[in-house]
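Per-residue structure
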Amino acid sequence: MSDMALPDIRRGYATALMVISSIMISFGGLLIRLMEEADVWQIMVYRSAALIFVISLIMVAQFGTATPATVRAIGRPGLLAGVLMAGATFSFLQSITNTSVANTLFMLSGIPFFTAALARVILKEPLTRNTLITMICASVGMVVMVAGGIGTGSLYGNLMGLVTALCFSGYAIIVRRHRGVEMQPVLLVAGVLVLAVSLMVTWRDLAIPLHDIFLCFLLGGVLSGGANLMFIIAARHIAAAELTIFMLLEFALGPLWVWMVLNEVPRAATLIGGAIVIGAVGLRALTELQRTQRRPPSVPL
C-alpha cells in the first residue's frame, strides 16, 4: 500500500473503533438499571475488579514475560493518566448523585471543547473545520437532550460534573501525546485506584447477588475494558478532539437501550437531541470511512 494511503486507512480504522467503543459503553446505564441490590460503591468495587482482571489477562496474553516491563514503561505520564481517569470516575459519581442527570450531561458535553483547547496548546493539533462543525452540531444535540432538565442544582454536583469533563480531557491528551508508548497499563492504574477507594468506603458490605456480580463483570470487564482499549488504540491515529466527539454517542444511545429493554419512554427532547448527536457523529464517521474506501490499496497490507 502506498505511504499516502496509510494515514487514511489508519484514520478509518480508528474511527470505526471509536464508534464501536461508544456504542459498547452506552449499554452501561442499562446494566446499572438492571442491578437488583448493588449500590454505586458496590458496583464500583466489582466493576473495577473485573476491569483489572480482564486487562491483566489481555496484557499477559499479549506481552507474556514482558508484561511487568510494559507496565513500568508508562512512567509518570501513564500514572498521571491513570489518576485522571480514576478522578473522572469518582467526580462523575459525585456529580450524578448531587445534581440532576441533565446538569451532569450538560457538563460532560463540554469534553470535546476542553480537549480541543488542550490539544491546541499542548499537542499543537489544529482544530479542522469538519471537526469543529461536528462538535457544534453534536453539542447542540446534547443541549436539546437536556433541555428543560437543566437547573441550578447543587453547586458541588455541578462542579464535579465540570471536574469530570476536565479529568477525562486531560486523560485523552496524555494518551494521545504518548501514543508511542503502550498505554494499556493506565487502565490497571485507574482500576486499582478506584477499587482501593471503593473498598475503603464499603468493605464491610460486599455481599450482592450473583446476578449483580455478573452484570458488574460485563460492565467493567467487557464494556469498560473493551471500550477503553479501543480508545487507547484509536488515540494513536486520530486527533484528541476527534476522539472525544465520538464519546457523545454514549449519551445519545444510553436512553434508547433503557427505553427498548425497560420500556422507560424518554422525553421527546431526549429523542430529538439524541437524533441530532447520532446524525452529526454518524455522518462524520461515514465520511472518514468513505475516504478510506476511495483509496484502493496498491499493495496488500
